[in-house]
Amino acid sequence: MKDQISYKAVWTIRKFKSDEAYQAWKNGCVVDYEISRFDGNLLLNEGKSRLHNLLTGGGGNNYGNAAAYLGVGDSATAEAVTDTGLIAATNKFWRPMEATYPTFTSPNKTTWRAVFGSTEANYAWNEFTVVNASTDTGDNLNRKTSSQGTKTSGQTWTLDLEITWS
To answer: What is the value of pTM for the model shown?
Structure first.
């Protein structure tokens, strides 16, 4: 018998044509938007160390609503466990959690969500992270690279990271 922790990560981007379309969707209206889902994630050494410290009472910022941010950058450089955040060729930007996120659902799913408004992160979305600070100065839990298109001024995009732990 072998003990191990495993996880499955799924990223979701909802691409709304405007802030108004996003607000209508948030209020329960049916609106047209594009959705992109992609799998994968690489836990970074600094993120694993922070999880260990939190589990053993070592302290530090957690990845909850008050501390967690989702970051988006334009670098397509492949992930490495030694990364300490977004690599970003030119652009990177972080948003705090939506009011009720992260969510924890039974039995073992965590979902983080951030909303990038019409004037934020308007460039190619190629890399993604969750960090426990408003910039890469915190401990990045993970990093994922995947070309997901270019966000332009006037659009609102949501970014979700869902991790199922087992």
So the answer is: 0.94
